[in-house]
Structure formats: structure tokens, C-alpha cells
Amino acid sequence: MFNLLSWKDNLRVTIADVAREAGVSAMTVSRALRDPDKVSEKTRAKIRAVVDRLGYVPDPAASALATGKTNVIGVIVPSVTNNVFSDVMRGIYEVAEGSIWQIQLGNSRYSPLEEENLVRTFLSQRPAGLILSGLDQSNETSRLLRSADCRIVQIMECGPDPYDLMIGFSHVEGSAAATRHLVSAGYRKPGYIAARLDPRSQRRLAGFRKAAEKAGVFEPGRIVTTPRPSTVTLGCELVADLLSKAPDTDAVLCNNDDLALGALFECQRRGLRVPEDIGICGFNDLEMMAVANPPISSVRTFRLDMGREALRMLTEALAGVEPDRPIVDLGYEVMPRRSTARNG
Amino acid sequence: MFNLLSWKDNLRVTIADVAREAGVSAMTVSRALRDPDKVSEKTRAKIRAVVDRLGYVPDPAASALATGKTNVIGVIVPSVTNNVFSDVMRGIYEVAEGSIWQIQLGNSRYSPLEEENLVRTFLSQRPAGLILSGLDQSNETSRLLRSADCRIVQIMECGPDPYDLMIGFSHVEGSAAATRHLVSAGYRKPGYIAARLDPRSQRRLAGFRKAAEKAGVFEPGRIVTTPRPSTVTLGCELVADLLSKAPDTDAVLCNNDDLALGALFECQRRGLRVPEDIGICGFNDLEMMAVANPPISSVRTFRLDMGREALRMLTEALAGVEPDRPIVDLGYEVMPRRSTARNG
DNA sequence: ATAAAAAATGGTAGCGCTAACATTTTGTCA
DNA sequence: TGACAAAATGTTAGCGCTACCATTTTTTAT
Question: Looking at beta carbons, which residues of chain A come within 8 Å of B288?
Fold first, then answer.
């Protein structure tokens, strides 16, 4: 005799056990669980009772193999620590909670190559859907995605030619608006600091440049960047660098709020008055911006909503309900606060 | 004839395709991939070539069904936005990257009930391992875990009677040490603020109490807590509350760094000098603490290491290498900074 | 050279579930 | 009440992979 039972000694309850106990066929159990309308009320109740008593939980692997589909939605973000993405993730998990959908999180660490590997791995698992960040995939990743047979949502940005669905906002416009705010607040020598120049950061920088040029206040010498990842400490360093290169700079638009907070700390250490001597504006509007001393102006983005909506659009599409529009622009909102209130 | 092929029109490359092309049996292909030593060098090369050419990727669902095992390691954290956990996650993903192990992240949102559901769901997927936070699971969760046939790592805390492996530190001792630091810095009326009283927060509060009592400076009236989640803004509110209830408070130990930063902002808004009028100490030592004005004292914890080590221990155990000790205490380090430097 | 041992490879069955079709039961209406 | 449609349930086969054992090939020892 064979002994194929080596690993299943752990008496896992299978659909066959439930079927036997309930006196029906396995197929009926399967239907009762995944398509209850197709099973009579009486049978359904009987099956539910047995399922509860035995503690039956369907094996997702077997189900995946049989159907060629999974309940897995892959989410690929560039960073799990960055506040921006963790807010998005929170939104996603919030909506996923209690639903049938399983979130599988991948961390590309801002590397298109790692992203490519993740996409490949995820796709091999027949995901129901994929959520990924931005518009700038590698050629191979794009190819994989275009021929993937699952729904895809791009988040964080809006742009033309989505793979499928898209939700985000315009980084160019957001930082252009912040720049105009600085100009209208009376600053004439604005600088820009940025770390980790991922594509979205670059577009924010481009937005600054565009708006600053238009206002006639653009000076390349007031731009300081570094490939290092953003931290508050780095904000201190970058603004120090900026001020040593261009001491007459009268405002700093920061690529994100961590840098802005660091910039504030550093300016204060140097005895510069914010906003009188120098204005500071961040990007994303993290909660802490509003309670700093002085409160820091920023560009609010809707990260939690983005996560929620991304998953909602995706799961609805999977359920056969196409979204009204495939591209959703959540916009942004400039939040003027005292850190840029030069004229009162 | 049947038409069972409806969904597999997508010409997925299977192990049979590879076997045919390589002129060997499927079994040999399987072995070549998962146990290369068992296949001759020549055959292996031939198979590898075909695998590359066809772009074959094994179907994890089929593999899971056949072996009863998966490569999935479930990670359950109470929050994906909290800096503390996102650092741990980053450590985990760092180690997982490039390995065969798939991380499946669950977010219990500080709810033992949601944790229980997650554990149940995860276990139904036959994970290779589980990483979860803390010592305080529900009875049912404990039962599930004790009878689970996968390796388990508890993170964030150390305590007796682990399910399996454990890595963390003592929150009681950490905050007791911070309290002693305050006392030795000359503060005699220390208060404590905390939000979201999860079990670890409670133990930190207990540590404060223990050390404050020992030093003869404990006063219950100087403790302010709230169930709301920690934010910088909440730090402002809590310290405001503390100061209205006990205006002569001369130091605040904060349950975490967000609160500490908020406390600093609020004290400064009120014209209190830090550290002369009031000392402020945080917990976790986020990067920004060192660059605030003044720099904020905190208790450093080793979150990234905790994530890395947790996954390392787990995967080594899965590979048959038992860790030296099942419980690893990573300790903590009090970081005295100017925010508590009352005597110079 | 030959037997015995070791290494490499293959054949078969089955993991747990569900698509597709087949059959039985129930409900409806003339 | 019988004929027919609709609903409920059952049967069969197979998803892609790997455990187990069987067989073949290679290596080693005598």
C-alpha cells in the first residue's frame, strides 16, 4: 500500500468531510459556500451547521488550482516606511478587511528592477488584481502588465495611457500651486529641496520650476537635491546646504513634509525667523504640520482616500461593475499656514 | 467532449511543457527546480535552458496543494502606519527580498478579534511561518497558535512562555530606565502621557510607575491617557491636559515619540522653556528626535533589527537550523538629549 | 569483468477543489 | 393530474504539482 498521507495526518477538514456529514455531495457544499443562491435554503442551513461544527475552512490553494483564480490582490509600493505609502496601505487594508480579498504587499524599494521581479512573482500567482504606484515602470514590467489577465490599478499619480484603472493626482500641478502660493505670499527668492528623486519627486520639482519660471523667480542655484532617502535630518542638511549656496533665499519649497520639518528646525537653529526671514512649505500635509511652531504650510494630498478608492474600484471592477471613469483625479489642496505668512 | 479549458486558454506554461521540451519527465523538472542536487548536472542545465526559454514559473497553488506547504510567511501587525511597525516591516521585507519566502501582511488594527480572524485565515493557507506582535492574544488565538503546525515568531516584546520563537525587549524596563533618567536629571514631578493603551503602552506606563514609585516621585494625578491613536496633535492635547490638571509638573515621559514631539510644540507655544521649566522624553527614538529644537531625549529601540532578526530566525528554523536561544532580547538604550538636560 | 551499491530518472496517484454537464426533484400551469 | 420548465443536486474529470515507489543508469568495489 501507498502511504501518501504523510503530511495530511493533521486531520485537515476537507470539503468531502463536510459533504459526508451533511449528507450531500461535495459540489453542493462548494456551491453553498461560494454561490449560496444556487442551493436550497434547507440544504444551505444543514451545510452551514456542519461547516461550523467541523470548523471547515476551504483550502485556497486547491480552489486556486481548480478555478485558475485567486482572491489575492497584489499591492506594490516603493516603501513601507514612508508615511505617504503607509497611509495608502492603511486605506487599502481598511477596505480589504472583512472582504474576501487578500492583500499581498510587495516593497519595491524605489527600484524598477525590484518592481519588475515583484510583478513577475505576483503574476505567477494568478492574482485577481494588482495595485501599483505611478507611471514609470520598466519596459519589461509594462509588457508584463499589458498582457496580464488581471485588473490593474495605478495609484499615486494621474497620467495618460493607463494599463487599466488609475487613481491619483498631478504632482506637477500640486507643487506648482504651492509655488504660486509662495510667490503670492511675497517671497521672491524661493528655493527647492528634495531627496530621493523618484519620478514623482521629479515631477514636483518640474512643477516648481514651471511655476517659478512663470513668475520670474526661478533660479537653478536654489535647487538642492540628493538621492538619499528623505528624513527630517536630511531636511536640516539640505536647507543648510541651500542657505550656504544661496544665503539670500527667502523661501523653501520642500519635496515632502519630513524635509519641511527638518528645514524648520534648522532655520530656527540658525536664528532665522519663519516666516519673516524665510518661508517654508511642505508637501503631503502630514498631520504634524498643523501643530508645529509655527504651523507649516503644505500641500494636502488624499492618501487614505486613494488607498480606499483604489481597492474599491478594483474590487467593483472584479465584481463586474465598471467604474464610471477609469482615471480618477483626487486633486490636492494647498494649506497655507503661518510658516509662509510673510505678510501677516 | 468536455471543454474544461475555458480559463486556461491563456497558454500558461506548465511543468509538463518544460518536461516535454527538455525530453525528461515532469518529476525530473520538479526535482531540478526544488532539489537540484538530486539531478545530474547535464540534465539540470538542459532543464534550466528550457525553463528560461519558455519563461516557466511554477504555480504556487499547485505546489501548495501537492505538498501541503506554502512559502508564505504571515505577518500580523497592529498598525501599518505606526512608525514602529513600519520599521519592523521594512526589516522583514529587506530579508525576504530575493528569498523564496513570500510575506503576507495582516493588519489587526489593535483589535484582538481582528487578530484572531487574521490568524485563522492565515493558518487556513498553510503558511510556513507566522510573525505576530506581542504577548497578548485572545484565548482562541492562543489555542489556534499552540496547535498550529507552523513556526511562529512573536515580536516587539519579550516575556515568558512563547509559542515558539520570540524577539523583542522589555517595555517595562525601557520606560523605567527613562524614568530614572528623568529623576537623575533633577526632575521631581514627572508626568506621563499615553495614547492608545495597547498592552505594550500599558507596560510602559507600568514601568514608569514602578520606577517613579521607587524614586518617591509617583503621583497618579500626573498621568494622562486616552484610547485615541497617537498623533503629534494628540501629544499637544495630552500635555495641555496634563498641565491644566497638574501645572507644577516638571517633566513628561511620553509613551512614544509622536506624543513627545507634540508635547514639545505645545510647551513651546505656552512659553515653557524645555528643558529648564519642563523636561520631555519620548520612546522609540525616531530619527527626528535628534534634530528637534531642542533635541528630544528618547528610548531607542531596535525596530529594524527586530524585523530582520525575526525573519532570519524564522527562515533558519524552517531550514532546520534551530536558533541558539528561542527568546532574543534586543534591549533598548536611553538617549539623553537636551530636552531633559535640566542641569546643563 | 562483474556484482553490488549509489545515483538518476520515471510512472502513478492524489492533494482539495470546482467547471461542465447530467440527473433528479420541485414547482407551475393548462 | 400530467406535461413541462426551473431549480436543486450529483457525477466526472482535471487544475499543476510532488510524494512515493519502481526502474534504469552510472559508479564503485572486488
Answer: 231-233, 258, 261-262
* Alpha-carbon gap, residue B62 to B60, rounded angstroms: 5
Chain B residues lying within 8 Å of A149, measured CB to CB: 10
Chain A residues near residue B233 by CB distance under 8 angstroms: 287-288, 290-291
Min Cα distance A181 → chain B (Å) is 25
- How far is Cα B35 from Cα B33, in angstroms, rounded to an integer? 6
Mark the ranges of chain B whose per-residue pLDDT is less than 50. 1-9
A7 → closest Cβ in B68, B109, B120: B68
String of DSSP letters for A297-336: BEEE--HHHHHHHHHHHHHHHHTT---S-SEEE---EEE-
Domains and CATH numbers, chain A: 1-50 (1.10.260.40), 72-169+304-331 (3.40.50.2300), 171-301+334-340 (3.40.50.2300)
Give the minimum alpha-carbon distance from A216 to chain B in angstroms, rounded to a whole number: 34
Q: B61 vs A67: CB contact, 8 Å cut-off?
A: no
Per-residue pLDDT tens over the stretch B24-83? 999 999 999 998 999 999 999 999 999 999 989 999 999 999 998 899 999 999 999 999
B263, B259, B261: which is closest to B249 by C-alpha? B263
- Quote the mean pLDDT of chain A: 93
- C-alpha cell at position A119: 510583478
Contact A229, A237 (CB under 8 A): no
- How big is chain A, counted in residues? 344
